[in-house]
Amino acid sequence: SAVISQKPSRDICQRGTSLTIQCQVDSQVTMMFWYRQQPGQSLTLIATANQGSEATYESGFVIDKFPISRPNLTFSTLTVSNMSPEDSSIYLCSVTRQGAAETQYFGPGTRLLVL
Amino acid sequence: QKEVEQNSGPLSVPEGAIASLNCTYSDRGSQSFFWYRQYSGKSPELIMFIYSNGDKEDGRFTAQLNKASQYVSLLIRDSQPSDSATYLCAVNIQGGSEKLVFGKGTKLTVNP
Fold this sequence. Notes:
The structure holds two protein chains of two kinds. Chain A is 0% helix and 50% strand. By secondary structure, chain A is mainly beta. Classes of the chains: A mainly beta, B mainly beta. Chains A and B meet through strand 5, strand 9 and strand 10 of A and strand 5 and strand 9 of B.
């Protein structure tokens, strides 16, 4: 498995502000994904982070609200923009590695509380 | 809409018993199936994956897949209190660029 880190691990933010979450992997990976897990719920895929190009968003998620970057094979960021209390959630990045297609490994998550 | 269904539980078993967790999926084209364990306050941790019909064993864990019935299960033998967690079933999306759809999870409690 890959060693995945996320920063920050948690944050408390005011509504209307934005937060950028970083995901760093210790080795090159093929796919990187961003998920949201609301309290007591399962994982919802936000988008696939594509290296060097625009992310692919799932239904219900838009680039203006969740801009994503992936400048190289080991790093991605997710920004939660113009936050509201409904954005309070855990945000998780996951990765797949070459030769282990579809097997996703998760980072430790970022716990976000919006007041 | 691709769906993955799990009994939300909670499922409670005594220590040493077999815990049986079940999952059904809607996409007949799905080929890859995963079980993740998530402790409270932690991120999901991969336990097992299975691609072929039948059973796959890894230590105390056995995954069972029946594609005809669109059913996948996870058995935990000799359950321990440390197995108490939420178990998430995930299924790949056919043609979905390695994307997974997750069930809502089954909360398992193993009582000492």
